[in-house]
Amino acid sequence: MGSWRRFRRNRSAMFGLAVLVVFVLLGAFAPLITPHDPVQQQLTQALQTPSAEHWLGTDNLGRDILTRILYGTRISLLIGLLAVALGLVVGVPLGVLSGYYGGWVDLVVQRIADILFSFPNILLALGLAAALGVSLRNVVIAVGVSVVPIFVRLSRSSVLTARNEQYVEAARAGGTSDARIMGRHILPNTLSPLIIQSSLSVGTTILLAAGLGFLGLGIQPPTAEWGAMLGEGRDYIFSFPHITTFPGLAIFLTVLAFNLLGDGLRDALDPRLVHEGGDKPAAVPGKA
Q1: Is residue 43 part of a domain?
Q2: Which residues does residue 58 pair with via DSSP β-bridges, in sequence order?
Q3: What phi, psi does 276 have (nearest 5°)?
Q4: Which of 22-36, 165-179, 238-252, 261-275 has the least mean pLDDT?
Q5: CATH number at residue 236
Q6: Range of 123's domain?
Q7: DSSP 190
Q8: Is 63 within 8 Å of 34 (Cβ atoms)?
Q9: What is the DSSP string of 74-135?
Q10: Where are the alpha helices (DSSP H) in the chain?
Q11: Residue 111 lies in a domain
């Protein structure tokens, strides 16, 4: 309860949480909110500016932009959550094994992480998307792999701190297996930084997925996805700026909300990271 009270007192974090709740509700109840079809073309209504009928206007094919943003919320949030889940499933076990055993296991895992870290996230995602092909599954894989090394490093650093604690030594002396020590004693005590980083990484993965969509390597039209909407409207950015402005604002608000939420979780779950005198909390280990 102490963590929740600290989180609730953080106005920025509560604002981020509120924005995310609004987006989730809008995406979930999109069919009830708007009567328009997100993919049906109405060429006679193309390139209309915001009006009473189309609150955010229409795109070059006459599709209602508000409707496509609402339906696109589902795709963008799904990609972000699944990509981070992939990063956790792959990165955390590797990081735990690397930190617990050390030696050649640590050497091999960390060199793999170094190789992945040597590529900028967007470049790594672009290469994987181009190699795997275009689909929702492949976009999740391409974006998820780019955050794997962050979770490898984070979980390794947490395990290096925890493996020499007295409760771990006691479990080891009692004949507890390594797998049980890692699963029952070490991993639960390293969850706070993983939760914080997961929240921050969702915003990053949504931004990466939007970048792939903008470049034509993400979710393909006519499916409504924010990045693809930006790509479709770039030819009209000066003559009809509303086509790109509103999807861009949706991306901005969502990424901002996840970042604010992550900062709030960092303050709430580990107040030791906040320096005396009200300084900013120390950064969660991640990509340098």
Answers
A1: no
A2: 64
A3: -65, 145
A4: 261-275
A5: 1.10.3720.10
A6: 2-36+79-273
A7: G
A8: no
A9: HHHHHHHHHHHHHHHHHHHHHHHHHHHH-HHHHHHHHHHHHHHHTS-HHHHHHHHHHHH-SS
A10: 2-9, 11-28, 30-33, 65-101, 103-117, 121-132, 136-162, 166-173, 178-180, 191-214, 226-233, 242-269
A11: yes
Tokens of 166: 């007295």
Q: Is it the case that residue 211 has pLDDT exceeding 70? A: yes
Extract the tokens encoding 100: 């617990």
Mean pLDDT for the stretch of residues 169-180: 84
Q: What are 231's two structure tokens?
A: 């790509």
Tell me, yes or no, if the pTM score tops 0.90: no
pLDDT at 278: 43
Phi, psi of 50 (to 5 degrees): -50, 135
* Total count of domains within the chain: 1
Q: What is the pLDDT of residue 169?
A: 82
Give the least confident one: 24-33, 242-251, 269-278.
Answer: 269-278
